[in-house]
Amino acid sequence: MTEHDCPRPSRRTLLCGAAAAPLAGLALTACGGGDGWPRSPEAETQAVTLGGDAGEVPVGGARIYREDRLLVSQPKKGEFRAFSAVCTHGGCVLSSVRELEAGCGCHGSRFDAASGAVLKTPATVDLPEYPVTVSEGRLIVGPGRREG
Ligand code: FES
């Protein structure tokens, strides 16, 4: 684990490192942040065009765009949903996806990738959602949050 993998030093950082240490290589991708905690996705304030094309998000599944700190799902064909991939428990970037469920490797929180809802604690706050559109096959997320 490097200083860039976990939030700035705090009790949370210690917990993150402790939780990730047994996972060796997985630990390097388990935690987010680096120059601030928690780092919100750029989509909070500006439109972000994701790399690759929309077809990379499986129908009935989701994908984590780690660099952009975004989680994008496609619950039904052509229906995309985008959420912050910054775990609401401690600021780690979500690290795993299984169908429509995303997980945080730091302390085991799980989120519904179709709604952003917490499925498993310790996180208790749902993931913020952003508007997402498809333009020329590319996913564009944000700016700002999607309410309701
Ligand atoms: S940071 Fe603790 S579960 Fe994600």
Q: Could you explain how this protein is built, in words?
A:
With 148 residues, the chain is mainly beta. The protein folds into two domains: 1-35; 42-141, Rieske Iron-sulfur Protein, CATH 2.102.10.10. Helix content is 7%, strand content 28%. The chain is built from one helix and eleven strands; from the N terminus they run αβββββββββββ. The chain has one helix at 11-20; strands at residues 48-49, 61-65, 70-76, 79-84, 96-98, 101-103, 110-112, 118-120, 129-130, 132-135, 138-141. It has a four-stranded antiparallel beta sheet, with no helix packed on it. The longest helix is centred in the N-terminal third of the chain and has 10 residues, at 11-20. The radius of gyration is 14 Å and the shape is globular. 41% of the residues are buried. Residues 1-6, 8-30 and 32-36 have low confidence and may be disordered. FE2/S2 (inorganic) cluster (FES) binds at residues 87, 89-90, 92, 104, 106-109, 122-123.
Query: Taking strands numbered 1, 2, ... along the chain, how are they ordered across the largest sheet?
Result: 2-3-4-9
The structural domain count equals 2
Order of helices and strands: HEEEEEEEEEEE
- Secondary structure category: mainly beta
Determine the N-to-C terminus distance: 38 Å
How does the SSE layout of this entry go?
Elements: H1 11-20, E1 48-49, E2 61-65, E3 70-76, E4 79-84, E5 96-98, E6 101-103, E7 110-112, E8 118-120, E9 129-130, E10 132-135, E11 138-141
Antiparallel strand pairs: 1-11, 2-3, 3-4, 4-9, 5-6, 6-7, 7-8, 10-11
